[in-house]
């Protein structure tokens, strides 16, 4: 699908040709090549950011990832989600006999052949995911997690050959995002609306009088509206990930302070036995459930023991997490190899996530942390009842 429009006035007037594509469609490649050949634009824009362009050109996507840094910065869940969505697109692309992003590569090759400048139109996917998750509330995130896990385990709508045919004329990722947006309205702002604003502004900022912009078909309507109505956006604001008040951070300090007060109260008012029981409840609840999380993640026996021993301590320290130590332990006993990094782009099933040592370590970290957190939630009311 092609949209032609003009923006600006006088010397600043530009002719914009929007080419809407599906990321796994052979027809889209032909459309892109034909449009660039016939229009001979001054600039060719593609719905990519700098990092994704380098990944397409080099073929490397995950090889340079610092897994320990991902875990320490709390991006485990975002990283796993990114792998899942990327590999789902790749899997469907393979069924169609086309490599995802091939139409973008076709545009880039045409630009190189004609010696035309390339304009990166899209925002860094990490910024998009971060801002989107910030917009979502706790229960929305919980619901999203359940939906992703359910779909990952094969619950819900199946993507069969008929469904793939229906998706051929659409931008797959944006289709999936819009479907999610129906259930999670707050996601639409970061995943669709903001990207429409960002891409249209980057088109405005493109040099030259004639621009061919290759974008996902799911963005066509939004981008066209922004350009026709001359809606301008602040790129720096859209690229920022401002820190909002994190009440969870304060909660992490409240928990150890509360626990210490419980111990003091139990010892001074109720006696040594009660204080000992408070300590026992805490160790058993946090340690056992962290170990259970590691067990569900199919961690090494030593990792399970490490999770049990350290969870009671890490849950009392705001700067530590049981999952970190579980991940380090798992990496020691099942160290990742180069082939595991190279194979990340092929992980697309439950068994695949468990068998790949990189994603397995991340799952161990995630489930251990979840187990420890549930342990805290269970332990505190039990201790209050004990002291009552």
Tally the helices: what do you get?
Answer: 19
Helix amount? 55-70%
Question: Which strands sit side by side, in order, in the main sheet?
Answer: 1-2-5-3-4
> What would you report as the Rg, rounded to the nearest angstrom?
25 Å
Q: β content, as a range?
A: 5-15%
At a glance:
This protein has 388 residues and is α/β, with parallel strands linked by helices. It has 19 helices and 5 strands.
Tell me what you see in this structure:
With 388 residues, this protein is of the alpha/beta class. It has 2 domains: 2-239, no CATH class; 247-387. It is 66% helix and 7% strand. The protein is built from 19 helices and 5 strands. The protein has helices at 26-39, 50-58, 67-72, 76-96, 102-113, 125-135, 138-152, 161-167, 172-183, 185-204, 220-228, 235-239, 247-270, 272-296, 301-314, 322-333, 338-342, 350-355, 357-387, and strands at 2-7, 14-21, 43-46, 118-120, 210-216. The protein has a 5-stranded mixed sheet with strand order 1-2-5-3-4, with helices on both faces. A hairpin with a 6-residue loop joins β1 (2-7) and β2. The longest helix is centred in the last third of the chain and has 31 residues, at 357-387. The N and C termini lie far apart (69 Å). The relative contact order is 0.13.
